[in-house]
Write a sequence for this structure.
């Protein structure tokens, strides 16, 4: 019932840059293409359900508006809508060209031991504090 | 010396982390039955140990189910490196259909519970952004949802085989199908069953499951078929891009036809 042993040959290894770059680029391209064809979809997006039920902002409130502000070239406005989402979007935008450059062999592959399990507790605590701080900001700013 | 996790040849002296996968070297040991402890071409790999679900005791072993979900979601490369590539489809299909059905029912329940709230939050007042062509209000009806709930196991089974067939066809086209169609179905079953858990999260669960599922499918196909990441990514992403392109071309053709008909009249 077990699998048949494969003949001796080189087994290709997973390439994280190629994986994330291909997924990110495909989703981005499809999203941009559909939104370009149906711009009404942007205004037709429903409001936040959490806010509709509780009256309070959720941790991702303002992310769509931040994306639109960033796309229209207003980074300060985007940061005001949702700082963490804006930084995440900018990070994602920077990651894609890096990943393709790394895949093409034009850039060195950046590696750190910090983000691979087990992640050190100060890093985990810092991540949780950043999420909480961002949410508190959104609540205070009434986004 | 090679990385205990991915088998990448490490330079000498050994760095503190693997330059290929980023894993801290010398700390993590390869899971039992997981190939990768030795050099990539040092002989035939050891037999695959199997996922906890593949080695479960009895028909429904909840412990094995949760261990499999955790492994597939949070350590997909190791999970799919240890997954058996054959041995029948009954177990993997049961895993996918069981989890997909239960989580799908919860997702439908969320939709029913919050349908009133969602309608109130739509800025278009319930109007579809697609105009008259997109009037899909019948899909929100309770009758439709009940019918969907009843047919869900069959729909999951059908969709699993259709997606697996598409993945396998594209894998063959890109020269990445090193194993049988059964292997592709097994990869998809464990991926779909595990990511179905995200549907328990109301509103955004489906979206998380979709994106996370794409990533796990690519990792799974690459590890199970022992092919490159590029071929696996192409097998999963090219059909999506092709669907998107077909959708755009269809709409553009319909608009062009409409404009030409209006121009004549």
């Amino acid at each position: 019932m077990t699998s048949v042993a494969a003949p001796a040959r080189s087994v290709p290894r997973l390439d994280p840059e190629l994986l994330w770059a291909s997924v990110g680029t495909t989703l981005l391209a499809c999203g941009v293409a559909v939104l370009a064809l149906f711009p009404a979809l942007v205004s037709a997006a429903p409001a936040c359900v959490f806010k509709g039920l509780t009256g309070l902002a959720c941790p991702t409130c303002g992310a769509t508006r931040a994306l639109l502000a960033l796309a229209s070239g207003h980074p300060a406005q985007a940061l005001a809508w949702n700082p963490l989402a804006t930084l995440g979007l900018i990070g994602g935008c920077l990651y894609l060209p890096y990943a393709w450059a790394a895949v093409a062999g034009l850039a060195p592959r950046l590696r750190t031991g910090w983000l691979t399990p087990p992640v050190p507790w100060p890093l985990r605590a810092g991540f949780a504090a950043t999420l909480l701080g961002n949410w508190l900001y959104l609540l205070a700013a009434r986004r | 010396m090679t990385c205990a996790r991915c088998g990448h040849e490490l330079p000498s002296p050994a760095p503190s982390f693997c330059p290929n996968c980023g894993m801290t070297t010398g700390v993590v040991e390869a899971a039992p039955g997981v190939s990768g402890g030795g050099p990539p071409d040092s002989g035939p790999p050891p037999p695959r140990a199997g996922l906890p679900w593949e080695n479960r005791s009895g028909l429904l072993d909840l412990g094995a189910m949760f261990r499999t979900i955790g492994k597939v979601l949070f350590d997909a490369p190791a999970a799919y490196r240890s997954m058996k590539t054959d041995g029948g489809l009954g177990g993997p299909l049961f895993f996918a259909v069981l989890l997909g059905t239960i989580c799908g029912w919860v997702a439908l329940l969320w939709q029913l519970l919050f349908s009133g709230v969602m309608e109130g939050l739509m800025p278009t007042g319930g109007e579809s952004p697609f105009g008259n062509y997109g009037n899909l209000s019948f899909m929100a009806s309770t009758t439709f949802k009940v019918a969907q709930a009843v047919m869900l196991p069959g729909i999951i089974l059908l969709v699993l085989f259709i997606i697996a067939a598409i993945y396998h066809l594209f894998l063959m086209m890109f020269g990445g199908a090193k194993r049988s169609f059964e292997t592709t179905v097994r990869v998809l079953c464990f991926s779909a069953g595990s990511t179905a858990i995200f549907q328990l999260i109301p509103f955004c669960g489906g979206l998380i499951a979709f994106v996370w599922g794409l990533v796990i499918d690519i990792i799974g196909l690459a590890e199970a078929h022992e092919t490159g990441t590029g071929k696996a990514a192409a097998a999963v992403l090219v059909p999506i891009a092709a669907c998107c392109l077909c959708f755009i071309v269809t709409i553009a053709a319909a608009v062009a036809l409409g404009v030409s008909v209006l121009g004549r009249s």
